Amino acid sequence: MTKEVKNLIELRAVAEGFLRDIASRPPQESATTVGLSGDLGAGKTAFVKCIAAALGITEVVTSPTFILEKVYIIPRNGVVGDRFLKLIHIDAYRLHSGDEMRALDWEAILADKTNLIFLEWPEQVVDAMPKDMTKLSFNYVSEGVRSITIEGVA
Fold first, then answer.
1. What are the C-alpha distances in Å from 33 to residues 4, 9, 93, 100?
2. First-residue to last-residue Cα distance in the chain
3. What confidence tier does 66 reach under pLDDT thresholds 50, 70, 90?
4. pLDDT at position 153
5. What is the CATH number of domain 2-151?
6. pLDDT at site 142
7. CA 142 – CA 107 distance, rounded (Å)
8. Most exposed among 104, 119, 125, 148, judged by the fewest C-beta atoms under 10 Å?
9. Among 57, 52, 63, which residue's Cα sits nearest to residue 19?
């Protein structure tokens, strides 16, 4: 499924719909992982900011490019209830293989079914990605217009 967005309001609507879809899936035995691909400036971090806002996270969400990972506690709310307790935002842009994910304690992060993981640049660490990862591709269409292709939504 591909959606075109022209502004932040439309991006928020896509993010909120995506979050509802994720939350309505049957619970998994491990973390829910979403890979975000696309050029620099295509909207990956902006999308995670919209997800965080929809979850009720009030902290400022910024790109974790230089620190690799940011963890946000998800307040219990009507969107996901207590299904997800942490939003984990990872930026793998500077990584070169899945082995480098070990520094983040990747196996433990994946093992916790209450984690909702958004990982930018999954193609950098493809060998460490779970097979059931949902993929979102962000593409520049024109000035102010982006397309988001979603693969793997139930």
1. 23, 24, 17, 17
2. 11
3. confident
4. 54
5. 3.40.50.300
6. 87
7. 39
8. 104
9. 52
Question: Which residue in the block uniquely carries the two structure tokens 């660490």?
Answer: 125
Structure tokens at 17: 């719909």
Which residues have C-beta within 8 Å of that of residue 142, sequence separation ≥ 6?
Answer: none
Domain map of the chain by residue range? 2-151
Crossing angle of helices 8-24 and 44-54, rounded to 10°: 60
Instruction: For residue 45, give Cα distances in angstroms to 12, 30, 109, 116.
Output: 12, 23, 20, 15
Convert the pLDDT of each residue in 12-55 to its tens digit: 999 999 999 898 888 889 999 999 999 888 889 999 999 999 99
Q: Listing from the earlier edge strand, what are the strands of the sheet with 69-73?
A: 2-5, 145-151, 134-142, 32-38, 115-120, 86-91, 69-73
This prediction has a pTM of 0.91
